[in-house]
Amino acid sequence: MTSCPRCSSNAKLTGKEWKYGPFHVKQYECIGYENVVMEYYRNSKPHYS
Q1: In 1-49, at which residue ranges do the beta strands (DSSP E only) sit?
Q2: Measured between alpha carbons, how far is 35 from 11 in angstroms, rounded to an integer?
Q3: Tens digit of pLDDT per residue, the chain (49 long)?
Q4: Considering only the top CATH level, what class is 2-46?
């Protein structure tokens, strides 16, 4: 489980993942404010643009 970059609460994985250029994107749902958050990975490490 990852933390939300907006409110720092926990976020659960929604199961949606896709390739976006050089990134692998995973979609999470923030438990704190119930919104969707995307996390971008490059070379298996989190990378935010």
Answers
A1: 2-3, 10-20, 23-30, 36-42, 45-46
A2: 9
A3: 678 878 888 889 999 999 999 999 999 999 888 889 898 999 988 876 4
A4: mainly beta
